[in-house]
Amino acid sequence: MGGATFIGAAENEQDAKVVLYGAPYDSTTSFRPGTRFGPAAIRSESFGIETYSPLQDRDLEDFPFFDSGDLELPFGAPDRALEMIEARAEEILFQGKIPFLLGGEHLVTLGAVRAVAKKHPDLRIIHFDAHADLREDYLGVRLSHACVMRRCHDLLGDGRIFQFGIRSGTREEFEFMRAGHVVTEPFSDATLVEVLDSIPPDAPVYLTVDMDVLDPSVFPGTGTPEAGGFNYRQLVGDVVRICGQLNVVGLDNVELAPSLDPTGRSTALACTFLRECLLALT
């Protein structure tokens, strides 16, 4: 691990409340690859934004977080990559800190969730995404970014995964939703307040944000864009509300593929969004 850090990061881990760690992995990507370069691009481009958020009237310079850099993950070996992500998340949790994962494709979330669920057996997941990610397998493979929420369901069981913005999936995935295994709000966040009010404020929550929940007109730099998505202010508002109301014990941002947006606006957006996520945790 090592290299450049996100703007405003503390120089040591000791006093940090949140620890960033990157998982530059995209070996199961089913369409356009490139998310392995997301974490490094976010760190590099973060120096083009301010540490201060006018939206929240907070500044990263007043909020101790630590950026521990990227894991060196073996491409083509998802089992081993997930083990390494899980081990790093466990280290962060053992220190009493919040692990914040930067992807990478969405499969990396599974490693983090495994670690957090060990510490918090009553864990809930709040999931923003364009895609359901509930396939039992993808082309016969059960460890795929197309299956990550199904594998998380294997860990947590029914009624503990809450999805928003979903607008793509197979017939079988939508049947799985309608059967009540997960709670899904297709296309929108209309039921977010109702869902948040149904979760006890001290219950542990893992927040996973696939950046393709945003409309591709806003965020084209992702491998599987889907029309009809959220706008930026909508997503930020939701995250601020979640972090302010619930006990978020782990989180991630995934699926930025910077090379797929030569304008650089997707990476710039991801930087600002990461800042807002960090500040929302204070």
Your description of this structure?
- With 282 residues, this protein is of the alpha/beta class.
- It has one domain: 3-Layer(aba) Sandwich (Arginase, Chain A), CATH 3.40.800.
- 32% of the residues lie in helices and 18% in strands.
- The strands form 2 sheets. The protein has an 8-stranded parallel β-sheet, sandwiched between helices.
- The radius of gyration is 17 Å and the shape is globular.
- It starts with 17 loop residues before the first strand and ends with a helix.
- The mean pLDDT is 95.
What quaternary form is this? single chain
Would you identify the CATH architecture?
A: 3-Layer(aba) Sandwich
Ranges with pLDDT <50 over ≥5 residues?
none
N-to-C CA distance: 26 Å
Helical fraction equals: 25-40%
Sheet with the most strands: spatial strand order: 4-1-5-10-9-6-7-8
Give the class from helix and strand content and strand pairing. alpha/beta
Class, according to the CATH hierarchy? Alpha Beta
What would you call the shape? globular
Q: Treating each run of at least 4 consecutive H or I residues as one helix, how many helices?
A: 8
Q: What is the CATH topology descriptor?
A: Arginase, Chain A
Radius of gyration over C-alpha positions, nearest whole angstrom: 17 Å
